[in-house]
Structure formats: structure tokens, C-alpha cells
């Protein structure tokens, strides 16, 4: 790519290969242990053999909660 500044070239980030499996495990643990927070869930995942940090679990945790909240609002509207 001659003649273009390097800041114009962007790579689209791809998700990790195990993201959906991790998401499913987080949702399952959250269902079983409803009162626990994301830090305790992250600790349980590490005990189960996942190599995750609290930030990654928190990000997925928030995404799942917002999707859940959005679906609840949509069901109330209809």
C-alpha cells in the first residue's frame, strides 16, 4: 500500500475462538449462583480451568445483562 499513511490501515478485531463457550459457562454459573458477582464467577471459572481475568468476565457479564434487560423491555412493550 504505497502512498497511504499507516494510520489509515485498520484491522478489524475478531473475537476469540472460545468466547461463546466462555459466555455459556458464565451464564450457567450466574443462573446457578444468582447472588454472586462477576469477580466470584471469574474465580469459579479459573478453578474450573478457564484462563480468564476479571475484566474479560466483567465485559461479558455486562453484555449479557444489557441483552437481558433489552429483551425484558421489549417484552413489556408488546
- Overall residue-averaged pLDDT value: 87
Percentage of residues in strands: under 5%
Structural class: mainly alpha
Task: Name the overall outline.
Answer: flat
What does the main sheet amount to?
A: none
Q: Please give the share of residues in helix.
A: 55-70%
Q: How do the SSEs run, as a string of H and E?
A: HHH
Low-pLDDT runs = none
Number of helices: 3
Could you tell me how far the N terminus lies from the C terminus, measured between alpha carbons in angstroms? 51 Å
Radius of gyration, CA atoms, in whole angstroms: 18 Å
Instruction: Please count the beta strands (DSSP E, at least 2 residues each).
Output: 0
What secondary-structure arrangement, pairings included, does this model have?
Elements: H1 19-32, H2 38-47, H3 54-77
Provide an overview of this structure.
The protein has 78 residues and is mainly alpha-helical. It contains three helices and no strands. The chain has helices spanning 19-32, 38-47, 54-77. The termini are far apart. The mean pLDDT is 87.
Explain briefly what this protein structure is:
This protein is mainly α and 78 residues long. The protein is built from three helices and no strands.
Summary keywords:
single chain; 78 residues; mainly alpha; 3 helices; flat
Amino acid at each position: 500500500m504505497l502512498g497511504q499513511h499507516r494510520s489509515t490501515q485498520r484491522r478489524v478485531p475478531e473475537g476469540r475462538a472460545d468466547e461463546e463457550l466462555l459466555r455459556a459457562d458464565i451464564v450457567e454459573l450466574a443462573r446457578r449462583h444468582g447472588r454472586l458477582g462477576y469477580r466470584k464467577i471469574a474465580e469459579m471459572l479459573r478453578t474450573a480451568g478457564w484462563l480468564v481475568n476479571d475484566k474479560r468476565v466483567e465485559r461479558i457479564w455486562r453484555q449479557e445483562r444489557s441483552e437481558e434487560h433489552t429483551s425484558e423491555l421489549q417484552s413489556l412493550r408488546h
